[in-house]
Amino acid sequence: MHRRDLLKVGLGASLAALAPTPVRSLDADSSPKPPDFLADLPQRLCVFTDHVDDLGFSYVEVAKQYGTLGYGPDLTVRGGGVVPPERVVEELPKAVDAFRDAGVPVPMISTSINDLADPLARPTLETMHRLGIRYYKLGYMHYHDVAKWESELSAAAAQLAKLGAVGQEFDVTAGIHNHSGASIGGPLWDVPLLLDEVNSPAICSYFDPAHGTLEGANFGWKIGFQRLIGRIGMLAVKDFVWEKSDGGWRSRWCPLGEGLVKWPEFFDMLAKTDFRGPISVHIEYPIPGSTPAERFDNCLAAAQRDTSYVVAQLQRAYGHTS
């Protein structure tokens, strides 16, 4: 993709945002949606299993603990995850059965897949289809040379287009996570450009307000969200603060509501859209514990605290307090 072509894509997206659209924008009627948005929340709210990946527990043990929590997993199906990706065909069905036996669904999985050339890509998507899992997080692609951002973004779009075609075949949707830093998708203008270029219903935004705030704390995250309304299929929820140390300013993850993300404002904005996808709560901050079992229990307590925070914010934003 040439520079002028990429800029045309960006300009086209900007103009399209000004055109009439059936999706409600943030300038539309500001009254909250009916509380039925929350009716199936237990089927969509989930907790990322990344924070227990290194504790040595099987998916059966993790499932039992999540059953007590009352929410399913955003299940790691990648190297070092709860489900080994090289055994996805055999093990993912067993893991899903374990969570369902514990009374919770598996709304989404997190993978390292970002290229159809990956030999695990097609088996993973086909297995998802058989199990009724609709959403998966893509693996990360990165900028390696800022002077070559156009060609690197174009190469990413080409990879995503191929995944989108297979995703449509299996009725599964891939989410581009706007991870801050050198990740493609981190700059808040990346994802709209990629989605415009790929133009596939099987590729969506996996919107992360915390990483959006890291890249655009004052207004950038808001305009990034606005540009993606109608194309956000999944949400990642976490919080952070800035800290100054001898090495300079650094971000540090923290429990929800204790950081810089403007959650009331974000959820008020969300309530004016038609979003109905998975909401994945990420426990990225350090969890204490002298043994794996103690740390796992503390992880569960942290997940209970953070999911309760999300539910309270959604109840407030959607006008439902019962």
Could you walk me through the main structural features you see in this protein, from its secondary elements to its overall organization?
It is a single chain. This protein is of the alpha/beta class. It has a single domain (31-317), classed as TIM Barrel (Alpha-Beta Barrel). The protein is built from eleven helices and ten strands. It has helices at 3-18, 41-44, 59-69, 88-101, 121-131, 149-170, 190-198, 209-215, 220-228, 263-270, 292-317, and strands spanning 45-48, 72-76, 108-110, 135-137, 173-177, 203-207, 232-237, 239-245, 248-254, 279-281. It has an eight-stranded parallel beta barrel with strand order 1-2-3-4-5-6-7-10, surrounded by five helices. The protein has a two-stranded antiparallel ribbon with strand order 8-9. Strand 8 (239-245) and strand 9 form a beta hairpin. Helix 1 crosses helix 7 (190-198) and helix 5 packs across helix 6. The longest helix has 26 residues, at 292-317. It is globular. Mean pLDDT is 89; it is low at 1-30.
Topology, pairings included?
Blueprint: H1 3-18, H2 41-44, E1 45-48, H3 59-69, E2 72-76, H4 88-101, E3 108-110, H5 121-131, E4 135-137, H6 149-170, E5 173-177, H7 190-198, E6 203-207, H8 209-215, H9 220-228, E7 232-237, E8 239-245, E9 248-254, H10 263-270, E10 279-281, H11 292-317
Parallel strand pairs: 1-2, 1-10, 2-3, 3-4, 4-5, 5-6, 6-7, 7-10
Antiparallel strand pairs: 8-9
Helix pairs in contact: 1-7, 3-4, 4-5, 5-6, 6-7, 8-9
Pick out its properties:
43% helix; 322 residues; alpha/beta; 8-stranded parallel β-barrel; TIM Barrel; two-stranded antiparallel ribbon
